[in-house]
Inverse folding.
């Protein structure tokens, strides 16, 4: 005997499945977060420090000291001596590299920079 396979009838749907949607899904679109754009920080540009260039200090060169020649004595080689034979003036800032008020080489004339 052929087996009677019951063919199910199409399901009778009383009404279309009403998916209860309360309201259309309001997708919460987040507002763009206001990113605080900082103003460019004004970097204080220091004006170049005006380094005062000290004028050359005129080192007074004393006049040649008159050496009296004594007669009938040993021959005097030089009749006069200069207190500063080669250097007539010194600069108060010879190299001016370290911007110091008293350069290291300015040791013997520190009284009048």
């Amino acid at each position: 005997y052929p087996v009677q396979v019951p063919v199910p009838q199409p399901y009778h749907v009383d009404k279309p499945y009403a998916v209860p949607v309360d309201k259309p899904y309001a997708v919460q679109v987040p507002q763009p977060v206001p990113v605080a754009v900082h103003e460019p920080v004004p970097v204080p540009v220091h004006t170049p420090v005006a380094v005062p260039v000290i004028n050359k200090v005129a080192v007074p060169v004393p006049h040649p000291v008159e050496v009296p020649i004594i007669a009938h004595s040993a021959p005097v080689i030089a009749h006069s001596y200069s207190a500063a034979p080669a250097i007539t003036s010194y600069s108060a800032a010879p190299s001016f590299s370290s911007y110091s008020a008293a350069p290291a080489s300015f040791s013997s004339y520190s009284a009048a920079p």
Summary: Confidence is low (pLDDT under 50) at residues 95-100. The longest strand covers residues 65-66.
